[in-house]
Amino acid sequence: MTSPETMSGAEATGRDRDGGRDRRLAAFGGRPAVPKELRNPPWPVITEEDRAAVLGVLDGAALVSDTDGETAVSVLERRWAERTGAAHCVGTSNGTTALQLALAALGVGPGDEVIVPALSFIASGLAPVHQMAVPVFADVDPVTFCMDPAAVEALVTPRTAAIMPVHLHGHPADMDALTAIARRHGLVVVEDAAQAHGASYNGRPVGSLGDAAAFSLQVTKNLPTCGEGGLVTLADDKVAATARMTRQFGEVIEAGKDRDYISYLLGWNHKLSAVQAAFTLSQLERFDAYDAARRANVTALLDRLAALPGLVVPTRVGDVTHAWHILRFRLDPAAAGLDGLRPEAFRAALHRLLRAEGVPVSRYQLMPLPEQKVFTDRVGYGSGYPWTAAEPPPDGAHPVATQVIADSLTLQKRHLNPGAGPALQRYADGFEKVWENLDTVAAIAKSAR
């Protein structure tokens, strides 16, 4: 089977060896632009070093994070704190528990409100509920897809305790504006950096820009483990100590001392496995090389696609480093010369035709967070808690989040492999081929009305 690394130049550009192309749409009998072997480049890339790291833990005695002495977990915590510039790092079982642990350690709880973006993964909204706090949803910026500071400011009430910016898809949120709002109102800031490993804002790594930050190590992330895992970075010594206690049943675990099994405060079993930590440590050795290759591959893809009318490619705003975890493409039928076509219909037709060409585009989130049933039905912990235990939260409109979901498609995971450059070029071939047939796209979109 041909791999991205071994394709010939002709194959990589989507041309036959005689220089010709099949320009017929694959949905109507043409040859797909992307061969099957390039539609799903593997991620994560698992090496013998990764396997050896995992086996090293299995062959040792430090299988859990509370083992006395240095473990894979403590080493990962130290290295990630150093990399992000944070004072502390605490390993957790996954990115969702990382968010909850950060909120808990900062004292966010019943009766509080936490402002989160209306466009994000469900965990961003659930984490406050897990703390019996109420999530309040702010609209997002139409270009960065991160929370809009003006929308956040309008939602602050006397009950607001925290702002949770999500560095969505790997683009840092507008942290200067958001932290200024937090300072004016005495709020804490918890970065949701689940998708933003390696991103930076004004020269500073994400994870060091607020009071705490949560990273996910889930297997699809830019820095993965072999399953699930999470990391919390923290600025304050006492808050970090609280996070370590709440990670393990509220106990105090001290090196060189026997465990007393006394729970001093409410806690959970949110510990990170040493096996997961060892795998991530091994991946971290190659992170910078993979990151550099990914940036080059993504840049080459976006440079080609930016020339297509009506296709709005993701970009960077301000002095930021984008992690390019997910690529979101907005679709503008009017700019494509298809006046009168609904963006949703344009998206649906393109989705069908691009998938037929072998371009693995998909949708990321089918509705804004506040429209998820868990937040509209408000069953929560039963009897409507935490909502019924607090004043009604402010009702923030989210038209931008709604429109972004309606008019966009995404590329997920396939571009993370450092050798995915040839595959991405074939995806560009697929986009260009479909764009050469916009009259057919329009016909399909109109027929779906």
From TrEMBL:
Protein name as it appears in the record: dTDP-4-amino-4,6-dideoxygalactose transaminase
CC cofactor: pyridoxal 5'-phosphate
InterPro entries the record matches: DegT/StrS_aminotransferase, PyrdxlP-dep_Trfase, PyrdxlP-dep_Trfase_major, PyrdxlP-dep_Trfase_small
Record family assignment: Belongs to the DegT/DnrJ/EryC1 family.
Keyword hit for Cell division: no
Lineage: Bacteria, Bacillati, Actinomycetota, Actinomycetes, Streptosporangiales
UniProt region (Disordered), positions on chain: 1-42
Matches recorded under CDD domains: AHBA_syn
Annotated Basic and acidic residues bias: 13-25
Alphabetized UniProt keyword annotations: Pyridoxal phosphate
Pfam families hit by this protein: DegT_DnrJ_EryC1 (PF01041)
Superkingdom of this protein's organism: Bacteria
GO biological process: polysaccharide biosynthetic process
Gene Ontology molecular function: any one: pyridoxal phosphate binding
